[in-house]
Amino acid sequence: MNVVVQKYGGSSVATPERIKNVAQRIKKKVDEGYKVVVVVSAMGKTTDNLIKLAKEISPRPDSRELDMLLATGEQVSAALLSMALKDLGVKAKSLNAFQVKIKTTPHHTSARIVDIDDSVIRENLKDYDVLVVTGFQGVNEHGDLTTLGRGGSDTSAVALAAKLRVPCEIYSDVDGIYTCDPRVHPRAKKLAYITYDEALELTALGAKVLHSRSVEIAKKYGIPIYCASSFTEEEGTMVVERLPEWLEEPVVTGATISHGQIKVSISFLPKDVKYITAIFEEVGKRALNVDMISLVPSNGKVFLSFTILEDHKEDLDEALKEALRDVEGWKSTYEGGFAKLSIVGVGMRTSPGVAARFFEALERAGVTPELVTTSEIKISCLVPEEKAEEALKSVIEEFEL
Ligand code: ASP
Ligand code: MG
């Protein structure tokens, strides 16, 4: 039995016409002899609108109830797509996270998939050619609905593919992964291949190509991901472990910006690592994403700074108060209006001088970075929001992206 997982994003199922178009594409795959497990996102801006609606009821909506609300979006598109398929004569059926038994961690709005009981899918594939599964949602150990974080249906799709040990195709309104955001930079180049490591860095750094957890899972289980458009027949991008031999490795594969960053500085911490541990434990409990951590000891005290996303400010405040409740004299400040600009490429491992070229490009744009972090295959820096696009343009020119 030839099985493939296909995921269709929100814009691919935004209207009844588009849903019917997606049904046609799926039918084609079935006619080629495949059984298809389809994962869908909510229609168009549904999730955004549901969040807005929740905020009209409550300024900080209860997260369990928010998940209950958000999970409805995917159920709508799964049911509609299944109807469209049935009208085309395809043996199809929709299933939600409860039915598929997608188990997640307890964290509402940012849960992680821990296991999927593939027996439900396998059983159903005996009788059906297409199973349409709701993306983005899972069920935690309390039997409550959870969601996987914005863009999380990519992760639902790859997790299903990993469990079934089949390839995964991800369709959206962009026909592949580009060197930089093609909507902002029209001369961006489409990549035929990108490695898991690069895709992981790019997505973690704010490029909206794939949900980063989906790439982690793909890498762990060696599942190739094919990213393409649901609107065209254009060749897309393969996400793989290693670039093919014949392909010349670029020094820098992609550049991206993550907006809405806050720089957090915590000063006058006692010089004892236990307080640092306590801070990151509390941060972890709340599943907050901190990045660009820098730690400077001075005069017997420690000064810690890092970045978080604007939306996480209140939760972080709570985390710090909890972690440092026994400490006196510490101070925290939050500075908003930053963006994180990053370049990524496995080619950096073997090409010296990348950092120098990166900072020269920033200098030409008249930008001085506030914080810098690097890994073997990336350089990130924190820059003022209003200078970010200009800085990115200069970087794109420098590395011919
Ligand atoms: N509908 C969800 C969102 O908008 C999940 C997804 O699209 O992947 O974030
Ligand atoms: Mg998405």
TrEMBL record:
**Pfam families under this entry?**
AA_kinase, ACT_9
Q: Does the keyword Protein biosynthesis apply?
A: no
- Annotated binding of substrate, by residue: T47, E74
Q: Name one GO molecular function term.
A: aspartate kinase activity
Q: Name one GO biological process term.
A: threonine biosynthetic process
UniProt enzyme class: transferase
Q: Which domain of life is it from?
A: Bacteria
Can you supply one Gene Ontology CC term for this chain's record? cytosol
State the UniProt keywords alphabetically. Amino-acid biosynthesis, ATP-binding, Coiled coil, Kinase, Lysine biosynthesis, Nucleotide-binding, Transferase
Work out whether the entry's keyword set contains Transport. no
Pathway-wise, it operates in: Amino-acid biosynthesis; L-lysine biosynthesis via DAP pathway; (S)-tetrahydrodipicolinate from L-aspartate: step 1/4; Amino-acid biosynthesis; L-methionine biosynthesis via de novo pathway; L-homoserine from L-aspartate: step 1/3; Amino-acid biosynthesis; L-threonine biosynthesis; L-threonine from L-aspartate: step 1/5
List where this protein forms a coiled coil. Answer: 306-333
Which reaction does this enzyme catalyse, per its entry?
L-aspartate + ATP = 4-phospho-L-aspartate + ADP
Q: Which residues form the ACT domain?
A: 264-346
Identify its protein family: Belongs to the aspartokinase family.
NCBIfam families for this protein: asp_kinases (TIGR00657), PRK06635.1-2 (NF005154), PRK06635.1-4 (NF005155)
Q: What is this protein called?
A: Aspartokinase
* Naturally occurring in which organism (per UniProt): Thermotoga maritima (strain ATCC 43589 / DSM 3109 / JCM 10099 / NBRC 100826 / MSB8)
